[in-house]
Specification:
The chain has 156 residues and is α/β, with parallel strands linked by helices. Helix content is 23%, strand content 33%. It is built from three helices and eight strands.
């Protein structure tokens, strides 16, 4: 699976990571299905509180309003536009999901009320020169997670 990140989303992530310093931050990813196994991030949320040096605690109550607004903007075309998953920073750690990350993502993907066929976890941090670095892991119900690929799009 490919996760395309447009330049404006990359910049939002870089700015948020700079502001957060060594605290972990995160949010949700909303996007568009653009081809077989290819999704483009259209919007993100940024939760700036609830993070420490070594952990990010997601606050579900902060994602509902932006998610509903996204669905309204995209005219509830859920087959094309939808919730893709979560993102958070790993400033001081490898861009590999922790055991807690895996549990959280599996809890989301098996929640029958959500009805997600898959969710992704995007882990990000700033590189030595301030550039965005990341990894994406894909979760499906009752299947082993696997690495997806990130494509950082460039502005034209």
């Amino acid at each position: 699976m490919q996760l395309l990140i447009p330049p404006e989303i990359s910049q939002q992530l870089v700015d948020a990571l700079r502001q957060a310093g060594q605290r972990e931050i995160g949010g949700i990813l909303m996007g568009a299905h653009i081809g077989p196994d290819a999704f483009r991030v259209k919007e993100i949320t940024i939760q700036r509180k609830g993070g420490t040096f070594a952990a990010f605690i997601r606050m579900v109550e902060e994602i509902l309003a932006p998610l509903l607004a996204f669905f309204d903007t995209t005219k509830h075309d859920y087959t094309r536009f939808n919730y893709l998953g979560e993102w958070h920073s790993h400033h001081s750690f490898a861009l590999v999901p922790s055991g807690r990350d895996h549990m959280t993502m599996y809890d989301i993907v098996i929640d029958q009320q959500l009805g997600a066929g898959f969710v992704v976890l995007l882990l990000v941090k700033l590189g030595d020169h301030g550039q965005l670095e990341g990894s994406v892991t894909v979760y499906q119900p009752n299947k082993t997670s696997f690495a997806g690929s990130i494509i950082q799009e460039s502005s034209v």
